[in-house]
Each structure stands twice: as C-alpha cells, then as structure tokens.
Amino acid sequence: METVSGAEAILDTLIACGVDTVFGYPGGAALPLYDALFHRPALRHVLVRHEQGAVHAAEGYARTTGKLGVVLVTSGPGVANTISGLLDAMSDSIPVLCISGQVATSLIGTQAFQESNAIGMSATVTKWNVQAARGQDLPALVFEAVDRAMSGRPGPVLIDVPKDVQLQRVDRALCARSPCARPAAASASSQALDDAARWLMSARAPVLYGGGGLINSGARACELFTALAHRLNLPTTLTLMGLGAFPASEPQFLGMLGMHGSLEANQAMHQADLVICVGARFDDRITGKLDQFSPNSRRIHIDIDPSSIGRLVRVDAPVHGDCESALSLLLDRLPLKDPDPARLDNWWQRIQGWRGRNCLAFTPRSDCILPQHLMSQLQAQLQGRDAIVSTDVGQHQMWAAQYLKFERPGRWLTSGGAGTMGYGLPAAIGAQVAHPDATVVCVSGDASILMNIQELSTATQHRTPVKVVLCNNGYMGMVRQWQQLNHDNRISHSWNAALPDFVALARACGWQARRVDDPSELAGAIEECLATPGPFFLDVHVAALTNCFPMIPSGCSHNQMMLSEEEWFREDAAAPQDQLAAKQ
Question: Taken in order 321, 324, 328, 330, is the CA torsion positive or negative?
Fold first, then answer.
C-alpha cells in the first residue's frame, strides 16, 4: 500500500477535486502542508500578506470562476485572522474552503503556543466545520467539505488539522476517490409554479427582482432570468449583489434597488401588484420600512435556501429550488409570447415618468472632482472592456453600483451582507489570478483601502496588474453621511486626519501611481491608469462632503426618498405625513 502524509493527502484530494489555486500564509502548525505544497506544482499558491486578505482573494477567485476558493492558514492568530473573511463569504454565499493548521493533538487545551479554538471561533461564520482526528479521515473530510461548500446555498467551510495528524501516514488510494454525489437540487412546487405563471399573465404592474443567488446558480440561470424579462417585457431590478445578472443596457433594466437604488426601481417596487423575487433575500437594505414594503403586491420567491423564503416578508408563491431549474420550469408554463402585450403599457408609462426624473444626474464642477464625475468617467473608459470591478464598502461602493454598468455576471465583486471594509483589493487580486488577461479594477475609499493595503505587495509579487481607483475624500464617507443626516451633523471620529501619501506608498510597493485633483485631468489620469502595464494606483481626490443620493433614509419606505439634501420625492398620499414632515 502506497502511503502519503496527511498533509500530502489533503493536497492530493484537493487536486482530485479540480482545485488548482490556493491562497494562504504559512506558520508553524501549517508547515507540513507547506512542505507538501513544495512538491505539488499542480497547485498554484498565492502568498498574501494577511490571512483576511487570503479569504477575500479566494472569494474574488470563486465569484468570478464559479469554482471553490481555497485558503491555507496556520493556527492561533492565523485562523483568527480569517474570521472577518469567513463572515463575508457566509453573508454573501461564496464557496470557500479554509484549511487551518492546529497544534498537535496532545497539546490541544493546554494553552500551547499559537493554540486557538478554531472550531469555536468559526462556528457561526461557516456552513460546516470539523477538526480532523486521524490522518486516514482527511481525504473523506476534504471531499465532504468541498461538497458542502458548493452545494445548495454556497458558503464557507473549515477543516482544522492538528500538526501530528498532518504527519500521519494515509493510504494514497483514498485521495483518488470521487467525491460523494451532491444531493439533488430541491424540486420546485408545481402548485407554486402554476400560481406564479397565472399571476404573471394577469399582472398589470409586475416587477422582476434578482439577487446574488442568480449569479451563484450560474450563467444559465442569468440567461433564463433575462429570457423571462424579455418574454413578458417585465421591468427588472437587481440587488447590489445581483448586478450583472441582467444586462444593464437592456431597456427593461431599472437599475439597482434599495437604500441607494434608483428612483424608478424603488417606486416600481412600491407600486407593483406582483413581485417576482429570484435569488434574493428581501434584506433590510432592500425593503426599507418593512411594514410598508410593496404593500399591494403578491410575492413570488424563488430561492435555494428555504430559510430565506417568508422570513422577512409575506410570500404568496414560495418556490424552493435552484434558480436555474425553477426559472426553466416557470418559463415552460408561460406562452412564448405575451398574448396581451398592451396590458403593461400604462405601467411602463408610469415607470418612464420616474425615469424622466433622471435621479443620477449631476453637474460636473470645474473647481473639484465630484465622486459622481469620477464614476461616470470610469464607466466611459471601461465601456466595452468586459472589466471585472471590485469595491470596498462605503459611499464609493454605492456610487460605483449606481454609475458602473455590467452586462454579464461575475464582473462585479463587492461585500454586501457583511459590509467588510478591506474586501476590495484582495478580491481584485483573486479575480486577476483567475483571469490574468482581464481588466480588473478595485474601486476603493481612503478609509477602506487602509484596512488591507499591505496586499499591494501581494499584487507586485504575483504580477497581477490590478488597477486601484481611489475615491479619496478624507473621511469614512458613509459614516460621515449618516452622522450628518441622522446625528445632527456631529462628525464624531470619522475624519481621517493623517492619511498617507498613497502615491508614495504604492510606489514603495512596486506599483506605478498618480494623484489627480483637477477635473480637467481626470479623463487622462483614468486612461493612463487603465493603459499602464502592471498594477497602477490612481489616487483621485474628490469633493470631501458630497453625499450619496438617491437615498431611502432609515425608517422610510420606498415612496419616501431623498434625491438630494434639499429635494424629497413622495409618490402618493398614503405615505405618513407626520413622518415625512419630521424627516424634512
């Protein structure tokens, strides 16, 4: 019987599962894994500078490829540093396998050097976690971890492997076994699908609403979603995580929904008589005031996760199943052409009225760069490049979501559920590793980029030509905006008083870099950034106190929106007069 070490067995099993790239950072309890890695050229290892960055890079890799993201870390602070990343992957349903080294079995519980309770720490931020007890179990545990991460609603999993278990001998034949068959996708209820088809054909004011689950389901699911919108000429909106699931250039697209969504998307949702939700969760950033969310609509909800259906809003047709299969079954129940295409004419006329307000319009200034100007110029120069864009979290994230246009899934990477500052740069690196010839841009803010700025060095070492476009306003912008609007303008500790010279810092890490603060130089600076071979850091100084609008303020519904500091929008008299007056 040919044997390998437990560490070798882990890597050989990953290779058998089709893994070819891992992200990580070595340490004492993971050294057997890294020693085994030395002899496995089939696995590319991307050395990051912080374990949180490893998970975000694995997320960027996974989200742009549909493959599993894999992370290797050591014990103690190594695995502890992954927790924010695992939370992010859990919140946004990204398949990530984290393999952590652990102190030897005999030392567990003795407060040994770099010992930590990896299982306890990661329990609430993973779908499944386990500590290996025997080397012989490792191949089966890896197969199960891969299966759990990729099946159903995807998410992160963790295997904690004591150092002595990594050194035990394992039958090599175990590593070649095929993974256990994944459970069949849930079959959608025929009655719910029948109801959904009937309501779609009778609705006079429908809205099709998609989320990140569409992208997780795959390109075919996004194609079927688009086909449904086309067949019945449905007004279509997407969540922050769903951008790219429906082409932004399509006339049916209303823009992003939610707190900083477009006027037309939010008003259509409020006035709809039928909402078809596919792969989204009705989270609080989408619904606004929950008891006034789309008050007169029936709701159809398609989701792979049964716990998401009916959790926050009433659902009239719950469809538990994978987005692709459920949409296919729904389309089979619909005619190939709407027999009464004029039934939505009045509805589209109302939507065009909201569109006519042009809620994202702005007037560029000659004395400073507006963030909206930056994003619109970036969009103009990314047009036709099929670029991948990551963001961090804050105002820049919302402006990017509003102004950048995505025609295909897997081109937009952002932290939605967890809102993790520091996500953008490592996620962009992971995406660039997966797509070495693609244009990959990280849009960040001055506060967010500092969270994981050490990953500039990772990009240099691994020759990933990522472009960073920094929306630099000197503040934690979204925090300051909320302090201004909700806390009587008490700007408490959200001003970055000692920012580094980002150009000098980027150059010190081997990047090319430039600063721009003159609007007349902006287009040329973006062109230089995108055209320069290798990584480039563009530090764009924008107007410091600009706020991000449109906005549904806290406690308001979709028909109560701020279009600017001075202008409110209210669609109908049903909105509570006293609440609106108080907000004004």
Answer: positive
Which pLDDT tens digit goes with each residue over 520-564? Answer: 999 999 999 999 999 999 999 999 999 999 999 988 999 999 999
Give the residue numbers annotated as catalytic, written as ranges: 51, 113-114, 163, 478
Task: Determine the topology of domain 3-176 in CATH.
Answer: Rossmann fold (3.40.50)
Q: Which fold has domain 371-541?
A: Rossmann fold (3.40.50)
Q: State the virtual CA torsion across 576, 578, 583, 584 in degrees, nearest 10.
A: 110
Q: Would you list the domain boundaries of the chain?
A: 3-176, 190-355, 371-541
Contact by Cβ (8 Å): 376, 363? no
For 279-373, where are the E strands, in sequence order? 298-303, 317-320
Under a CB-based contact definition with an 8 Å cutoff, are residues 471 and 395 in contact? Answer: yes
Instruction: Fold for 190-355, please state it.
Output: Rossmann fold (3.40.50)
Q: Are the C-beta atoms of residues 196 and 263 closer than 8 Å to each other?
A: no
In this structure, the number of other CB atoms found within 10 A of the CB of residue 386 comes to 12
Q: 207-264, pLDDT tens digit by residue?
A: 999 999 999 999 999 999 999 999 999 999 999 999 999 999 999 999 999 999 999 9
SS3 551: strand
Place of tokens 């100084």: 541
